[in-house]
Structure formats: C-alpha cells, structure tokens
Amino acid sequence: MTKVLQNVQMVNEQGELQIVNITMVDGKITEIGQNVTVAGAEVIEGNGLVVAPGFVDVHTHLREPGFEHKETIATGSASAAKGGFTTICAMPNTKPVPDSVENMQLINGLIKESAAIRVLPYGSLTRDISGEVRTNIEELKAHGAVAFSDDGVGIQLASTMYEQMKDAAQHDVVVVAHCEDNSLIYDGVMHEGKRNKELGLPGIPSICESVQIARDVLLAEAAGARYHVCHVSTKESVRAVRDAKAAGIRVTAEVCPHHLLLEEMDIPADDANWKMNPPLRGIDDKDSLHAALLDGTIDCIATDHAPHTVEEKCCGMVGAPFGIVGFETAFPLLYTQFVETGKWTLKQLIDWMSVKAAQIFDLPYGTLEVGASADMILIDLNKEQTIDAEGFVSKGRNTPFNGWTAKGWPILTIFEGNIVYQEVE
Fold this sequence. Notes:
Elements: E1 2-11, E2 17-25, E3 28-33, E4 42-45, E5 50-53, E6 55-60, H1 73-82, E7 85-90, H2 101-114, E8 118-121, H3 137-142, E9 148-149, H4 158-170, E10 174-177, E11 190-191, H5 195-199, E12 203-204, H6 207-223, E13 226-229, H7 235-246, E14 251-255, H8 257-261, H9 283-295, E15 300-301, H10 310-313, H11 330-339, H12 346-353, H13 355-360, E16 376-386, E17 405-415, E18 418-422
Parallel strand pairs: 1-4, 1-5, 6-7, 7-8, 9-10, 10-13, 11-12, 13-14, 14-15
Antiparallel strand pairs: 1-2, 2-3, 5-16, 16-17, 17-18
Helix pairs in contact: 4-6, 6-7, 7-9
C-alpha cells in the first residue's frame, strides 16, 4: 500500500522549512518532493505542520520484565510514540537481566509481542548487573543486544570494565556507562551544593561522576573501545569528555533534558519527583552542559525515562527511588526553552534527538531520506498546553515539570509507514 504524507514542512540542510510531500511504500520512504503525487495512494494530510524524523532515544527504562507495576513495554513504547520517538534503546536493569542468551530471547519475545515502536534492548556488561562476573558479549550481540551497559550502577572494578571493553572492541559494539564511584556517593539523594544543605538532605558530590569518566576514557583508549557516557551532569565530566575527544579517544556522550532545563536551586522542597541520578547540579554545571552540546563535546539528547509508582515517589527524597519520566515532555520543553528563545535552531534540536543519537550506535534511523525507514512525526510548533502528569500514557507520573506550559507538541507519529500515535481532539 502506497501512502503519501502531503503538505508538510521539512527542515532542510540549511535549517530552512520547505513544503514537501513524502511517499511511503512497505514501510520505507520512496520519494520526497514538492510535486509528489501518487494516484490511488492513501493520503495523510499534514496541514502545513513540521515533519521530523522519528526521534531516537538511546537511554530508556521500560521496567519489563520484572517491574511491570512501574511500566511495561506496551505502556512505555506507547508513551514514547506520543512523545515522537520511534526508536528507543531499553536499559538492562530488569528482572531477569538480559545477561544470557535465554534472558535476551525472553526480552526480545516481549518486545515483539507488545512494542508499539522499535525497541532495541541493551545487554548487560555483568551478570545481574552486579559488576562482578562478565557476560558473553559475542553471544548477546548475536541475539540482538544493541550495546552493553550496567546502567543504574557504575562498574566499580577497573579490571572488569577493561576486560569487557576489550571484548566489546573485538566485536565492534559500544560500551555504555552510568558513571558513579560508589565510595563517593555518601548515601546522598541530591547534589552536594547549596540547596541540599538548605533542605537538610545528604548530598552527592560532582566528583562521584567525573572520576569514573576519567578512569573509563583511559581504559577505552587502552582497549581500543567505543565508549559512551550516560547522562553527563557536571562541568568536570564535560572537561573529561572534551579532553578525551581531543586525544582521539572514541568517546561519545549524552545529556538529559532535565539537566539542561533545571539546576539544584530549582528544587522547591524535599519532593522525590525532583530526585534523579545523576542529580540536578549547580548553575555552572548546567551552563557547561549547554556549551558542550553546542560545541559537540556532548553528542545527543536522551531522556533517561525512568518511571516509578506514585506510592514510591509520594514521600521525601530519602528512601524514594531515583528517576523521572521523560518521553512525553522532552521535545516541547526543549523547543520552548531553547528554540523559541533563539538559543538553538530547530534543526539542532531535531538532530540531537534523532540522527545524532542514531549515529552513536550506527543505527540506520533518525533521518528523512529516500530509502530510510518511514519513521516520522508531525509537530505543531504553535500548539501550547500545560503539562498534566495525570494525562500521561506512561504509567509513571514522576516528573518535576507537572504544571509547566510548553509549545511544540508532536501530534502524529508514523512508524514504518503506519500511524502509531495520533492526537485526539
């Protein structure tokens, strides 16, 4: 069946908007042009809205299997589709962990059964993400692991990380790291700065993150590995990544929307909806992240979508789990705060959320071009609405952005040529 998405504005290489029609056949883009028409094709009317490639999120938590009370593959992928994502990479902190062929096959089966969009699972670097016994990278890659991570915890033993980096280099897969030195956490629940003292809460020092990044980039250099740093949050971490790139080390990095939008002094109270790991840092850290994104030190934006139940997040930060949801609010918040204000261009934001993310893992997604998968979204840049967590498709309601007003909302998502989300008026 041939389909035509007609009368849409596409951002060209110069960053300008131009009206085009896009044809799709068997889930692939077959033609893009101003005068494209196909007799008898199914027409999807774009009404002059902006079309963008489906977003790619390389850092997400879908909770299934094992924690379906927080999220499922079905609810998480539907939430992602609503936010404009068509490819998401699911972290391995599930139960069971994808640390064996059997467990990876289980997770692949669950994805095939219920995912609304493309879900690519990570394999874990160690058994049960314990940081101890190494997994078989070759086997897990052969059964669909997009990359390898023990996300949620930093691997404490340098020897374990080094040996896995050498295996990863041999099999040309990316090692992805949540960087955190456990000896420097000090049971903290938010950033060690000014605000934690005002609230009387234990803090997590910035060095907890940056010292492990510094270690890992040197290990990656020695191993010849491709190394990706999750959710960079501090100025010292930025410096470590920037210096590593300058030295020719194969390192990439991501930043989350909340670390670009918020800093420690924005935290209004001892409220666990503001508790994430890494925590919201200082204003100088936030400024450093902005500069690093603009100069290419940081490669892409990832949500770290991490749903928890209302009951888990209803009390204060001590004892509550780390993490906030992000799929359904990422683009409009970033568009409103940075594109509308002239700090970024629309093309930059789209690229950071699509093709730049895909390039890290050599994924053939995140682009609008002939031959590519027909993954795309329509965005109403003028649509303004207030974020209401109760209306989320995700099971998670844990967001610090509830009540914020934002513009630029995805209203239709197409995955492999089929509509998987459409706003209902």
